Amino acid sequence: MSTPLEKPQIISHIQKSLNYTVFDSKWIPCSAKFVCMGNFPRGTGVIQIYEVQHGEVQLIKEIEKAKPFKCGTFGATSLQQRHLATGDFGGNLNIWNLEAPESPVYSVKAHTEIVNTIDGVGGLGIGDGAPEIVTGSRDGTVKVWDPRQKDTPVANMEPIEGETKRDCWTVAFGNASNDQDRCVCAGYDNGDIKLFDLRNMSVRWETNIKNGVCCVEFDRKDINMNKLVATSLEGKFHVFDMRTQHPTKGFASVSEKAHKSTVWQARHLPQNRDIFMTAGGAGGLHLWKYEYPAQRSKKDAHDIEMGVAGSVSLLQNVTLSTQPIASLDWSPDKQGLCVCSAFDQTVRVLIVTKLNRV
Amino acid sequence: MPLIVKDYSWTQTEALVYINVPLKGVTVGKVDIFSTDEYLKVNFPPFLFEVILYAPIDDNKSVAKIGNGVVIFTLYKKEESIWENLALMNVDKETLQEKREHAVLKAQEKAVADAEAKAIKKREDEKYALETMMKLEDEERKRIEEKKEWERRRATEELELWKEKQRKEEEEKKAQQRREIQKLENEKKKKNETKTHSKSVPECPRKRTMTKTGKSEEISLPAPRSAGNIKIQFTPRVFPTALRESRVAEEEAWLKKQADARRAVNVDVSELKDLKEEERNPDWLKEKGKKLFATQNYLAAVNAYNLAIQLNHKLPILYLNRAACHLKLRNLHKAIEDSSKALDLLTPPVADNADARAKAHIRRGTAFCELELYAEGLQDYQAALKIDPLNETIHADAEKIREIIQGTVPDS
């Protein structure tokens, strides 16, 4: 009887029912507050700021704007400013100062169609290099923006002339271990995953995982690429070992089937890069641990280095809702605290216990 | 008639009666004993022993032992007394019968009562077992819930503590900032007095973006990256929907069906028997027609398209191209016919066949104009414009036709 209780438990701490469709929720760094972004039924966008107080969430502020918000990140701002960068349904990228939200600090019409996904790097005291924001959109392009440069992106990954566009569903920064290096990984709806090297402005690696890619995430943005998790439709996710790249075979990977439906998100624990949580289309959350193999690389028949993938084991799972859990975010300040939002118009604050003993 | 056994023997004490009935060689299995409080019968064919007891006995306590060629009864008397006889004497046949029936009835009732008692006991046992199980499970659940609650409470407390800590840190930071500002203002004042412009006074206090150590905000961030562009190619996919492994088989089947539908529809027409294999493929013939058109061999191109249409009369592109050939040959009526046929086949009007429809309208419009049916021609050009409003040549041509109709420019 004691062994089941030694496993990490996922406990729903607070549940809040909202009156709008919430697409994304993120913790405000260095605080017990989080933001929820979404879409009012009247077609306008909303950002709400909540604070966790004594077992309840209190609404601190509500901001309404013309276009619904799809995604947001704090990744590119400094710890003092804590500006929120958002992508909306109209293809605009805005950076808001939540203390003074009347007009954005930075605004640009990033894409011609909805901005599906956004990520930021270089802020929050993590890593070196310029703060940058990357956005991916339904118009098939991935653009990298610097908040100090107006109107034009610093990098644009677009299809060649005449190519039919595929929706870009997810982007992630990685390999930002020093000033110069930086990589962007993008996942598309036709199963393509492309890794762009921003230092050389080239495609470093591409592959197709046979199912539309819902979420990609590096285990850490600010180190040499270590692991990449890519989740997809049909309940599959892949973990790639990014330390060794083979010229033809690419990166080694292990794949796992879970959730029996689309795996919407995967998020690594900020305090332990081998633990990650996946959120599924049936409202479930699975907590996984990655175990490294005995040797991370080996030589193939032609004496070229290739990577060896490890294994993934399920630590815990829980079903919180009947609707997909569309967003998940770990608190960088308190281990085990996370906020997730689902399409049943609720946002939940969860506590995952015993993570220090895993 | 069974043989009545009379050579039994019996003894008694105050409380007990012992009866010894010899089995006379009958096997143990064939012995059937029937007993009530007052009546005793042992039936072992062909023998029968029955007796109406002198006084009632306790049937439940009494015991019969069968073995070694005898049946030994140990009967417990209800009332302790010494019986004069084992059986009730001076009993006539009728009383005997009565007693027997009475005994049978009593036995039956007893059996029923026993069965009921057993059933009741079983039900009660089951209920008890169920209740205990439920209690155990409840306890287990409560225990787990308590553990969870405890964890939750602990986590909430930790969170509150941490928030407190954060708040205190914030206040400290603010206090320190104020102190730093004070210090800098004092320094400024001093510097102003000495009239040296020190560039090292950071501008931060006004912006309030100082870090704890008071470092200047202008920690040099690298300059924004020089703009770059990466061209990418996607893994080709015909369908606009996302790729799902479970649907791949269906999609392949549909694509195959589409491709097959474009092949020859009726291949067993007699004239076609002497055609080569490749000439039976409408796609190949279309390519041939295009090449001939390009080399200005319009009659041959028309022939190629005729054959292709014979093979598959549902492809709009063939009519469209043949219309172009007829235009060049000045077969204007045929051109109009073919463009109309093509437009018919290009229903429903979707984004996919917009180009084709625009072309069909343009060709038909041109043919009408050549026939001096300018009104119809303009109609077609306007339809083409609706499909493709950004095309300059269509605009220009439509303008020309309008002018001709209005008579401002003489027809050339």
TrEMBL record, chain A:
Taxonomy, superkingdom: Eukaryota
SUPFAM superfamilies: WD40 repeat-like (SSF50978)
Lineage of producing organism: Eukaryota, Metazoa, Chordata, Craniata, Vertebrata
Name of the protein in question: WDR92 protein
Spans of repeat WD: 133-146
Pfam families on file: WD40
UniProt KW keywords: Repeat, WD repeat
InterPro entries associated with the record: WD40/YVTN_repeat-like_dom_sf (IPR015943), WD40_repeat_dom_sf (IPR036322), WD40_rpt (IPR001680)
